[in-house]
Specification:
This is Fungal-type protein kinase domain-containing protein. The protein is built from 19 helices and 30 strands. The protein is an alpha+beta fold.
Length: 817
C-alpha cells in the first residue's frame, strides 16, 4: 500500500453565529431501524409510516425555484430540438396521445402505458445534456419488473420459522421502483456496473409512476420512502435522496433526508412547464451540485468518499479540524465547560418552548386512525413539536441569507491536515431515513496503517457536537478515544433543501453532518471469548462511565453495542470501552429536560424510570447515572439470556422480547418483574453461582434506585436538577456496582474450566478484502452492459446490527446512533 499522501491544504473554517432558537429536550422517536428482521417488505411499511409521521413537510414554491442552479443549461434549445416534444402545442407527444386515447375510449389511463414514454423522455434528456456536463455515467431503466434486493440486518435473506424457531424457507426482501435512474463511477462503486442488473447500491434516484386517477399522495410518499431507505442503507455516504412521482401530466418532487421528507407543491405540469420538468430530471440525476460550478456541499453524495477501481470499499478523506489550538480553545470555552448548552447560539435565547411544542394532535392516517408506536429502536428527535407544515414565521429567513452563509466567519483561516483512510469493512449502517443516520466504517490510515473507526452522523443543529465531548475525554480510561474530526456545518439539511428549492427557509429541525475518527477497538461486548473476558470488559466499561460521570458528562445511551471489547493487549483499565456520545450531555447544562417525553437511546436497555417518564409526567426524576447503571445491568442480562457461550448465536428469549415492546409501559413492567428474579432463564453457560449472584446483586442495587425514584415521583415532589444529583451522588453508586463485578471476577479467576456450548452455526468470517490505491481516472468510470457475472457488482450482504446472525467478524454495531 502506497504511503503517498495528498498535500496539506488551507481550508477556511467558519465559526457559527448565535441564533435565537429555543428547543425542548428531545423526545422518544420511533424508527424503522429494528433488531427484528422483517420477513416480508410489507412488514416495514408501518414502521416507516410511524418514522415519517411527524417529519413530512409540504412547501409551496414557484416551480422556477426548483433546481434553479441548472438554469444555465440550454433547456429551451433542447425542447426545440427534441423530437418527443411539441413546442407549439407545449406537450410531450406520446404522453398526450395516451391521454387522448383514454378519453376517446372513455377509460382511464393505464399506468403501465406510461413507463416507456417517460423512460424515453428521460433518456433523451440524458443524451442531450451529458455533452454539456462533465458527469458520471447515468442511465434510466424500467425496473417495475426487476426486483432489487434489500439489505436488512446481517443478510437480506430471512427465514420463515416453524413453531420451534427452526428455519423452513428463505425469503429475500425486494422492491422495484417503476423507473430508476442508475449510475456508476467513483462516487458510487469501485466495481464495473452491469446496467441490466439494477441494484440500490447504484440507484441515484428511484422514480414512481402513477396516473392522475389513481395517485394517492400520502401512500406514494411512503412507497417511495421504502426505496429511499434502501438508498441510504446501501449507499452509506448518501446525504439525501431526491425523487419524483410521475403521472401522465405532472411531476411531484419529493426529497428524503435526515430531517424527514419534503414535498414541493404545486406539482410541476410537465407539458406547459417542460423547462422546470427537464431541469428537475437533470437535478435529481446528478451526484454533483450545480450544473457548472459543482458544489460538493450541495451534492446528494459525500464527495470525500470515493471508490478506487476494482475495490469493494472506498477511500475516505478527512480534513482534520482537531488542532492543539482548537483543543485549548474548546476546553476553555463557555460551551465546552458545560456552563450552558445554549451558548452555541444566542446567550439571550428565550426560555419558553416554541409555540405548539406541547401535546399537539397528530395527523390521522389514511384509515382515520393514529399510528401505533413502533416496535423499533428509539432515538432522539429534535423537539417536541410536529413537523407537518410550514416553518413557523419567526424562524423563517430569506434564501439570500443561506447564500451568504451567515453562520460562519471567514475572518480566520485554519490550516488542516488531509488524512486519507482506506475502508476495510462496513461496521454499522443505521437502517432508517430520518434521524442521525449513523454510519461506521472500519478503516486504516493510508500512510501509517493504523486501524481506526470512522463514524458519520447527523446531529440536530441544537445539539452539542459529539467531538466536543470527546475532546474533553481525551486519555480517559474506559472511554473511546478520538483521533480526528471534521465538522461540516455547511453540510446541513437546510442547505440541501435550499439548493433543491431556492428560497427554502431555515428550519428548527435542521441537522448537521460530522465525521469523527476514533481508535479501533474490539467488537461489541457480546463477542466475548470467555466468562472472564466478558467480566473484565464489563467492569472497565462501567469504570469508564464512572470517569465520565465524575468529569461532568452523562452518557444516556448505554447499550450492548456501545460497550466494546478493548484492543488486544489493552491495559487493565481499557479491556472494555464505552463509546457513542451522540446523546451525552453535561450535567450542569442550563436547559431543563422534558419530563413527559424523555429522549433516551435503545429501547431494550432503557431503565424502568425512563420508560415510566410519560406516566410520571412532570414529576419524573431527571435521567441520571442510575439509569445508565441500570442499562449496564440489562446489557449483561441480555448476554446471559441470549448467548450460550463465546461467539454463540443468540437465542430467542421471551423475557427479552418484552424489553423491546412498542408500549413503554409494557416494557417497564417486564423489566420491573425481571429485576425481582434476574437469574431465571439464563443460558446454560451462565447458569452458575458466580453469574447468578452477580445478576442478583446488581438487580438489588437497581431495585433500590428504582424505589427511590418511584417514591419521588409518587410524592409529586419537584425533581432535583441533574447537577444537584451529581454533587450528591459522586461515585457512590458506581463503586457499589464495581464492587459486585470485582467480586465476580475474583471468583471467576479461580475457576479452572470455561465450559463452552457448541454454537448452533459456525461463525462466518469473510475473507479480508484487498485495498487498492487510486489509479487512472478512466478506471473509475467503467460501465459494462450485461458483462460477465464476475464483473457484476455483488451486493455485500453482511451488516452489522444483528443479534441473530452469523459470527462476529462483521456484525458489530459499534458506535451506534
Amino acid at each position: 500500500m502506497s504511503s503517498r499522501r495528498p498535500p496539506e491544504r488551507s481550508i477556511r473554517i467558519r465559526s457559527p453565529q448565535p441564533r435565537s432558537i429555543n428547543f425542548s429536550d428531545t423526545p422518544v422517536k420511533a424508527s424503522s431501524h429494528s433488531h427484528q428482521p422483517p420477513n416480508i417488505v410489507e412488514a416495514m411499511r408501518p414502521a416507516i409510516k410511524i418514522e415519517l409521521w411527524n417529519w413530512k413537510e409540504s412547501y409551496e414554491t414557484d416551480t422556477k425555484n426548483i433546481y434553479r442552479t441548472h438554469d444555465d443549461l440550454p433547456i429551451d434549445q433542447f425542447l426545440r430540438e427534441c423530437s418527443l416534444y411539441d413546442e407549439n402545442l407545449a406537450e410531450w407527444k406520446e404522453l398526450k396521445q395516451i391521454t387522448r386515447d383514454a378519453q376517446r375510449a372513455q377509460s382511464r389511463v393505464a399506468e403501465n402505458s406510461l413507463y416507456e414514454p417517460l423512460c424515453s423522455i428521460i433518456k433523451e434528456i440524458f443524451d442531450y445534456f451529458d455533452e454539456w456536463q462533465d458527469l458520471h455515467p447515468r442511465w434510466v431503466k424500467e425496473t417495475h419488473k426487476k426486483l432489487m434486493n434489500h439489505k436488512e440486518e446481517t443478510n437480506v435473506d430471512y427465514f420463515i420459522q416453524n413453531g420451534e424457531g427452526e428455519p423452513l424457507t428463505s425469503v429475500t426482501a425486494k422492491t422495484a421502483p417503476d423507473l430508476s435512474i442508475m449510475g456508476g463511477g467513483p462516487y458510487l462503486s469501485g466495481r464495473e456496473v452491469d446496467v441490466d442488473t439494477p441494484q440500490y447500491a447504484h440507484c441515484i434516484s428511484p422514480l414512481e409512476v402513477k396516473t392522475e386517477a389513481t395517485l394517492n399522495k400520502d401512500k406514494v410518499l411512503l412507497q417511495v420512502a421504502m426505496y429511499a431507505r434502501q438508498c441510504f442503507i446501501q449507499q452509506p455516504h448518501r446525504r439525501y435522496v431526491p425523487t419524483v412521482v410521475l403521472t401522465e401530466s405532472r411531476a411531484h418532487v419529493h426529497v428524503y433526508d435526515r430531517s424527514g421528507v419534503l414535498r414541493l407543491t404545486p406539482a410541476i405540469d410537465i407539458h406547459p412547464d417542460a423547462v422546470a420538468f427537464v431541469r428537475t430530471i437533470i437535478g435529481i440525476s446528478t451526484v454533483f451540485g450545480g450544473s457548472k460550478k459543482h458544489n460538493e456541499y450541495e451534492a446528494p453524495f459525500d464527495h470525500n468518499v470515493q471508490w478506487v477501481a476494482d475495490t469493494d470499499y472506498p477511500q475516505i478523506q478527512v480534513y482534520n479540524q482537531w488542532t492543539s489550538e482548537k483543543d485549548d480553545k474548546e476546553s476553555d470555552s463557555e460551551d465546552f465547560d458545560g456552563s450552558s448548552e445554549a451558548s452555541d447560539w444566542d446567550s439571550e435565547a428565550p426560555e419558553k418552548e416554541p409555540e405548539g411544542s406541547e401535546e399537539e394532535e397528530e395527523e390521522p392516517d389514511d384509515s382515520g386512525e393514529e399510528p401505533e408506536e413502533s416496535n423499533a429502536e428509539h432515538e432522539e428527535s429534535d423537539a417536541e413539536i410536529e413537523h407537518l407544515g410550514e416553518v413557523p414565521a419567526n424562524l423563517t429567513q430569506l434564501s439570500e441569507e443561506l447564500d451568504q452563509d451567515p453562520e460562519y466567519d471567514y475572518s480566520t483561516t485554519t490550516f488542516l491536515t488531509l488524512n486519507l483512510y482506506d475502508v476495510t469493512n462496513m461496521r454499522f449502517v443505521r437502517r432508517t431515513v430520518t434521524g442521525r443516520g449513523t454510519v461506521c466504517w472500519d478503516a486504516v490510515d493510508a500512510e501509517t496503517g493504523q486501524a481506526v473507526i470512522i463514524k458519520d452522523s447527523w446531529r440536530a443543529s441544537r445539539r452539542t457536537a459529539e467531538w466536543k465531548l470527546l475532546m474533553r475525554t481525551k486519555d480517559m480510561d474506559g472511554v473511546g478515544q478520538m483521533i480526528a474530526f471534521e465538522d461540516r456545518s455547511q453540510s446541513s439539511i437546510v442547505h440541501f433543501r435550499h439548493f433543491i428549492c431556492y428560497g427554502f427557509p431555515r428550519s428548527p429541525h435542521d441537522r448537521i453532518f460530522s465525521r469523527i475518527v476514533l481508535q479501533a477497538y474490539g467488537q461489541s461486548i457480546r463477542y466475548f471469548d470467555s466468562k472472564l473476558h466478558l467480566l473484565y470488559a464489563f467492569r472497565d466499561a462501567i469504570a469508564g462511565h464512572r470517569n465520565l460521570w465524575m468529569s461532568g458528562i452523562l452518557h444516556r445511551d448505554v447499550s450492548i453495542d456501545n460497550v466494546l471489547l478493548g484492543q488486544d493487549g489493552a491495559n487493565d483499565n481499557n479491556r472494555g470501552v464505552l463509546i457513542d456520545f451522540d446523546m451525552a450531555i453535561k450535567v450542569d447544562r442550563v436547559r431543563k429536560p422534558s419530563h413527559h417525553l424523555v429522549r433516551t437511546g435503545t429501547r431494550a436497555f432503557q431503565s424502568v424510570s425512563v420508560l415510566n417518564a410519560s406516566l410520571w409526567g412532570e414529576y419524573t426524576p431527571p435521567q441520571d447515572h442510575l439509569d445508565d447503571l441500570e442499562s449496564f445491568f440489562y446489557v449483561l442480562a441480555w448476554i446471559c439470556l441470549k448467548h450460550n457461550g463465546p461467539h454463540s448465536d443468540s437465542v430467542t428469549s421471551a423475557f427479552l422480547d418484552t424489553w423491546e415492546a412498542p408500549n413503554a409501559h409494557v416494557c417497564a413492567g417486564a423489566k420491573s418483574n425481571f429485576l425481582m428474579a434476574p437469574s431465571v432463564a439464563l443460558q446454560q453457560y451462565f447458569d452458575n453461582p458466580i453469574f447468578r449472584t452477580l445478576l442478583m446483586s446488581l438487580a438489588k442495587l437497581c431495585r433500590g434506585h428504582l424505589a427511590d425514584k418511584s417514591e419521588l415521583a409518587g410524592n409529586r415532589q419537584a425533581s432535583p436538577a441533574l447537577i444537584d444529583v451529581h454533587k450528591k451522588a459522586q461515585a457512590i453508586h458506581h463503586d457499589a456496582f464495581l464492587s459486585c463485578v470485582d467480586e465476580a471476577i475474583e471468583k471467576q479467576k479461580k475457576e479452572t474450566e470455561d465450559w463452552v456450548h457448541p454454537p448452533i452455526r459456525s461463525p462466518v468470517t469473510p475473507p479480508a478484502k484487498s485495498v487498492k490505491r487510486v489509479s487512472k481516472k478512466s478506471d473509475l468510470n467503467r460501465v459494462t452492459r450485461g458483462g460477465s457475472s464476475k464483473n457484476k457488482r455483488r451486493v455485500n450482504r453482511s451488516n452489522d446490527d444483528d443479534d441473530d446472525g452469523p459470527g462476529p467478524s462483521k456484525r458489530s454495531k459499534a458506535l451506534t446512533e
